[in-house]
Amino acid sequence: MMKADVDWGNLGFGYVKTDERYVSEYKDGKWDEGRLTGDSEIVMSECACVLQYAQTCFEGLKAYTTEDGRIVCFRPDMNAQRMIDTCERLKMPIFSKERFVDAVVQVVRANAKWVPPYGTGASLYLRPFMFGKNPVIGVKPANDFEFRIFATPVGPYFKGGVKPLKLRISDLDRAAPHGTGHVKAGLNYAMSLYNIVDAHEQGYDENLYLDSATHTYVEETGGANIIFITKDNKVVTPKSSTILPSITRRSLLEVASKYLGLETEEREISVDEIKDFAEAGLCGTAAVISPVGCIVNHGEEIYLPSGMTEMGPVTKKLYDTLRGIQMGTIEAPEGWIQEIC
Ligand SMILES: *Cc1c(COP(=O)(O)O)cnc(C)c1O
Q: 262 lies in a domain?
């Protein structure tokens, strides 16, 4: 197949318009049959619910080329289920798991020339999203919705080598108890923008949020879950009802116990415990794991023993194993790899 004329190794993480996207419209209480379109523009009322009251949610996953040349996706059924959970919380209509996965397959097939070749480290990022479209001025959910998936090629996350991150413990909060922290709503990101710009201006890579009720326990960053490795090689991750359930993090915990024979724990992790850990990493679709080298708690710099130049050894093993499963060099658990073509 002819590939698009792209310098795969030098791609960043930005929007590149590709050929086809999937659209389905919800009207009169039901979804239409859906279609692919070349039109990347959306026209809607100035009073659309999404524009006034932010009724919108999204997902993120990747398609990539395996070592033996197949194009695949990683666990799209999990993204489908998470979007269902999000839609329930935001009073948006359910787009079924079967249709979600079918739409993913259609979009990737239609944009196969944009799927980076094996070995480039690049991938085709897929962005499913849904929004309330009809005019709404009194506060209530929309009646008409649109579900879309577009695709954009993204470069290797660790371009120019791994660089452990420096996080700061945030004074601002991400998610209220009984709020929307556990669902992938656009609004969770809108309210994080001020804080991420401020963190960057102060020389930090990310904000590490604490539980907003007590500011005692570690939760996650603005867009990634966190895992810690104890000095006796246990994989520990925060347990909280206000964390977004990362598919990468849940997969890594399975990899840790089933492939690497490591003990795993999901439990409350207090800020005071950070200094006792050996390694830390952020997990999400974008990087799988980005190592954390330093966490700053109001002027107190806590350096993880794994340092500021490389991934910790256990983090690296987790990373290599999950990447191997995704790239087809290590056998995947049943159902983790969705064949596209
Ligand atoms: C999307 C997201 C993640 C990562 O989830 P993955 O399914 O692993 O990509 C983590 N935290 C937040 C807040 C997110 O929005």
A: yes
Residues designated catalytic = 184
Confidence of residue 118 (pLDDT cuts 50, 70, 90): very high
Which domain, by its residues, includes 103?
A: 8-154
Beta strand pairing status for 288-297 and 206-210? unpaired
Domain-embedded: residue 254: yes
Predicted model pTM: 0.98
With a 6 A CB cut-off, is 133 part of the ligand 1 pocket?
no
Residue 220 CA: nearest ligand 1 atom is 11
Q: Is the CB of 293 under 6 A from ligand 1?
A: no
* One domain for residues 306 and 172: yes
The total of structural domains in the chain comes to 2
- Which of 193, 209, 285, 326 most suits a substitution to test ligand 1, by most atoms within 8 Å of the C-beta? 285
CATH number of the domain residue 302 falls in:
3.20.10.10
Ligand 1 geometric centre to CA of 210 (Å): 16
Q: Is the minimum distance from the CB of 242 to ligand 1 under 6 angstroms? A: no
Q: Flag whether 14 is in a domain.
A: yes
3-state secondary structure 208-270: EEECCCCCCEEEEECCCEEEEECCCCCEEEECCCCCCCCHHHHHHHHHHHHCCCCCEEEECCE
- Per-residue pLDDT, averaged over 78-92, amounts to 98
